[in-house]
Amino acid sequence: SNTSPDSYSVASHFGGVTDWYQSQGEDGPPVIPKDPYAYVVAAFQALPLPNYVPGPEEPEQAPPSPIYIPYVPKPEYLEYIPVEDEVFPAEEQPLPAAASP
Q: Which domain of life is it from (predicted)?
């Protein structure tokens, strides 16, 4: 049968597809870290300097209470609201000019 080389032998020839994150040990075989993110956690847990003296704790203070400002809505579009004297009842309003076909 005419078969192409299987992907396992090709991947083995190039060191494996998933071996890019592995580091080489001193003896040669790849070493997989048990927890690759452990060094990130350890970096944030570094020991303080020997001459470090912690300062006094700030007393817990309540946040300042907000000033109460009552909401008063402003009238909108006053320039478009006609004065009451200019408002015509429906029977007094002039009819729009009919559009001629």
A: Eukaryota
Would the pTM count as exceeding 0.85?
A: no
CA distance 99 to 94: 15
Give the model confidence (pLDDT) of 9-19 as tens digits.
555 555 555 55
Select from 30, 34, 27, 4 the least CA-distant residue to 18. Answer: 30
Asked whether the beta carbons of 25 and 31 are under 8 A apart, the reply is: yes
Rounded to whole angstroms, the Cα distance separating 21 from 26 reads: 16
